[in-house]
């Protein structure tokens, strides 16, 4: 159902901008917005963004980019949902849930993200887990927690970079194991003091076009 304070055209534009930010990691160009909505000038696209910012659906970032503040109804069903921050691919050296990482707040069913937990979304990169149901470009829903069981797909911070791997532990060490068709990916061996960032509870591809 469309929000009552914006027009049908603005809502369509918001949905298009949101999909680009969420699934491509960047906002669409003015020309792309014009092509999608049938605008004749880029000024119309700029005015659309201005209206969406003014009404609180988008926010401007210090670097000139955009962040989705209020998602469209196309991302939620009639069931109960919870808004989860999408933190992109998480820049190196910055905490995952730092404000500067948050690209959008995405409604997710409470049947998936159950109340009582803290969740975030990441955009997967690479093919190191393509045989475990996580492909390049997928969005993964992560439950934030510092421990895992053998076989869990975990999000870890290694050398200030985020990685998704299968968790395994032994008597003295833990291993982060790739599950990939590309045999160049190798396990990462760590000591038992290692702390994970969260567990992947779902992964989903989403074609934007």
- Summed over residues and divided by their number, the pLDDT gives a mean of 82
CATH architecture of the largest domain: Ribbon
Q: Please write the CATH class name of the largest domain.
A: Mainly Beta
What spatial form do the alpha-carbon principal axes imply? Answer: elongated
Q: Order the strands across the largest sheet as they lie in space.
A: 5-6-11-7-8-9-10
Helix-strand makeup class: alpha+beta
Question: What's the short story on this structure?
Answer:
This protein is an alpha+beta fold and 209 residues long. The protein contains three helices and eleven strands; from the N terminus they run H-H-H-E-E-E-E-E-E-E-E-E-E-E.
Give an overview in words:
The two termini are 21 Å apart. With 209 residues, the protein is of the alpha+beta class. It has helices at 8-24, 30-37, 42-54; strands spanning 58-60, 66-68, 81-86, 104-109, 119-123, 139-144, 153-158, 161-169, 173-177, 188-191, 198-204. The chain has 2 domains: 8-73, Orthogonal Bundle (Arc Repressor Mutant, subunit A), CATH 1.10.10; 76-204, Umud Fragment, subunit A, CATH 2.10.109.10. The protein has a 7-stranded antiparallel sheet with strand order 5-6-11-7-8-9-10, with no helix packed on it. A two-stranded antiparallel sheet has the order 1-2. It has a two-stranded antiparallel ribbon with strand order 3-4. The longest helix is centred in the N-terminal third of the chain and has 17 residues, at 8-24. The protein has 3 helices and 11 strands.
């Amino acid at each position: 159902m469309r929000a009552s304070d914006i027009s049908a055209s603005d809502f369509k534009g918001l949905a298009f901008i949101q999909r680009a930010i969420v699934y491509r990691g960047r906002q669409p160009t003015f020309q792309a917005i014009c092509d999608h909505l049938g605008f004749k000038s880029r000024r119309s696209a700029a005015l659309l963004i201005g209206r969406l910012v003014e009404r609180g659906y988008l926010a401007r970032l210090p670097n000139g980019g955009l962040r989705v503040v209020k998602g469209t109804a196309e991302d939620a069903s009639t069931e109960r949902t919870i808004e989860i921050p999408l933190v992109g691919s998480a820049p190196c050296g910055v905490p995952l849930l730092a404000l500067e990482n948050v690209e959008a707040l995405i409604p997710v069913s409470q049947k998936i993200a159950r109340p009582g937990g803290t969740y975030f979304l990441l955009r997967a990169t690479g093919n190191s887990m393509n045989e475990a149901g996580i492909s390049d470009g997928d969005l993964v829903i992560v439950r934030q927690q510092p421990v895992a069981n053998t076989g869990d797909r975990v999000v870890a911070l290694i050398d200030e970079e985020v990685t998704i791997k299968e968790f395994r532990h032994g008597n003295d060490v833990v291993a982060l194991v790739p599950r990939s068709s590309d045999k160049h990916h190798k396990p990462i061996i760590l000591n038992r003091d290692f702390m994970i960032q969260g567990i992947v509870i779902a992964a989903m591809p989403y074609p934007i076009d």
